[in-house]
Model the fold of this input.
Amino acid sequence: MDTERIDGTIHTDITPYSEFRNHLDQEVSIKGAIHNIRDMSDFAFVLVRTAREVIQCVYSPEFSEYRMGPEVKEQCSAKVTGKVVKSETRDGSERYELQIHNIEILSTPVDIMPVVISKKKVMADLAVNLDNRPVTLRNPSERAIFKIQEGIQRGFREYLTSQGFTEIHTPKINFAGAEGGTTVFRLDYFGKTVFLAQSPQLYKQTLVPVFERVFEIGPVFRAEKHDTSRHLNEYVSMDFEMGFIDSFTDIMNMETGVLKNIMELLKKEYAPEIEILHADIPQIDSIPAIRFKDAKALTMKKLKGITDMHDFDPSEEEFLGKWAKKEYGSDFLFVTHYPSSDRPFYTMDDPEDPEYTLSFDLIFRGVEITSGGQRIHDYNEQVAKMQRLGMNPEEFTTYLMLHKYGAPPHGGLGLGLERLTMHLLGFKNVRYASMFPRDINRVTP
Ligand code: AMO
Done:
């Protein structure tokens, strides 16, 4: 019997675009989708979409014996072989193209595209774009959004790993809702009612006495019943939790470090996507912080019709975003010491003023992207707060093992990936920053 040995060696006969400069005037092959064909009568531009670039290839009968026929059409998968030459660019930048010697078709579509994706942007309204996600995501501009999103997650993960955090994954099918309120999805679990995780809150805290510092990037679910431009029913939450903190400002400092690292990584390794999307990547040196009370006084003075004294509405956040930019030149603003009545049961009240909490939100370009703070670590204090809020501590027995058997002072935060992406890229709707958004009217594709 013949057996093969698989030793992990990757054989490839294709040359990535980043290597083109080392192969000037040589023949190389690329594989990708035929993105666009522009026939210029005696020659043709054939744009090939590879994993990250769209490579310009030029067909002319002068270049080789090969004759391009009607079998070469948009969205075919193909292997294109040709000579690397420098292309002329208006701005004098370094670009390369292929003079085609051969096109080998690897697959052929059976239907025409439902939406044109070969232009710079998808020229369709949001609903049509989302209905056709499997193809619209192939558009280089749409794809760039999610490449940037990858960079954000890498920046988060790499920075926290460098700071001694352990990456965790917590269950998404849960015995209780962590964030309270009505935004919890119920699920029939073999006859029992369980809940989809609104956040990894209870588990990430539980893991502090185990690893001291933990983080998770994962999906969370919110049964938001309203259709807004900033809410999804499933989103990606980037969470961390750290033990032995001296104060909740330790968490804000860690987040500032995370954000600096994300922005630096994007500038360094995601320049092609930043260019495609004309993204304005903020420079972060430090982030100003203002107390909730003082921020409220500011919005009350400047805006009319403010009724909620325990939180901010979107117009107040927008105002505070502009205020931070004007006063401090900062795209970010921490708002600290939120009222106790507005924060979940695990939040530590401020011992100096228990009407307020040791908590914060981070506002980025006028929208909240993070909530965080110090948690209660004392068992009796946590049980008493639950009782004060009308909760039954017995429903949280396994969560309370954290406190019962000794937890260090700790805190953490949750950062919404789509919200951060949305405001980094200047979108008006969070759905643009979600590959396959889930909202009250959408569960497909
Ligand atoms: P919170 O509920 O404020 O806090 O959520 C944290 C961050 O998650 C994002 N976010 C959303 N993004 C899209 N659609 C939604 N429906 C949605 N809801 C929230 C926002 C928000 O700032 N456990 C705490 C965090 C912590 O204290 O560690 C929590 O989940 O960017």
